[in-house]
Amino acid sequence: MRNDLIITTGNSNPGLAEEICKYLFQPLGTSHVRRFSDGEVFVELGENVRGRDVYVIQSTCSPVNDNLMELLILMDALKRASARRITAVVPYYGYARQDRKVAPRVPISAKLIADLLTAAGAQRVLSLDLHAGQIQGFFNIPVDHLFAAPVFLQYLRDLDLENPVIVSPDAGGVERAWAYGKRLNATMAIIDKRREKPNEAKAMSIVGDVRGKTAVIVDDMVDTAGTLTQAAETIMNQGAKEVIALATHPVLSGPAMERINNSVLKLVVVTNTIPLSGEAETSDKIKVLSVASLLGEAIRRIHQEDSVSSLFV
Which pTM was predicted? Predict the structure, then answer.
């Protein structure tokens, strides 16, 4: 690695940042992110970044607005300190669920966040499993959109599941489920659901055969787990042997853990794009896989101007 690389982070996920640095044999850059007494974010860089290639690792997870402001202010500080290039590494891209107008007089918040990141100084963005692929087009700067599929696929191969079926929780996830099914040589099914309002959905029926099979639900995130647990129950009612869920981003807000622990789900496999807290840290139904090597390899290739396309699985 050239010595002009700096990796820094805010307070959202320091554990992941440290893992990435360990993969790259790089020290974690020094930055002090604190609060004024009224809650405003204060940032001070602890080293010279002039002319250097800086990667800011920060998921915009809960508390979403605080972590977003930390990211924006960190990049502004780097820009004003004459960093050569600033890359926002956002493993979990918040506000992504409002990616289009689905009703009158509503925002497209995913585009707003893209504008804010660019205005703050980001010259490149690296993210993982965006809620909607078109979010890449909201930026006028390069975006490297990675997928957690290689990590999940290796885990599933190690489990050596007997007669698996990959299940998409909705029509929007069909492409993702198809990609998993192709690589695992597994059949596919789709949950037909009706969403009545945000964070609430009712699983209605299944398109495909799950009887006697191990069902693997594949999604980009699990938030309140309402959709996930209802889907799992519907699948089991159709005769599946067991249900496992894969979700890249463990948002796990509100009643999520209560629902998961009381559900028919055997296991929910997530990644460390968002750090777990509370009951999720100790639950036997939650398994965490690390994406540090995937993000670290992408950072290495971007920094050395190598191809990143082979990581797009």
Answer: 0.93
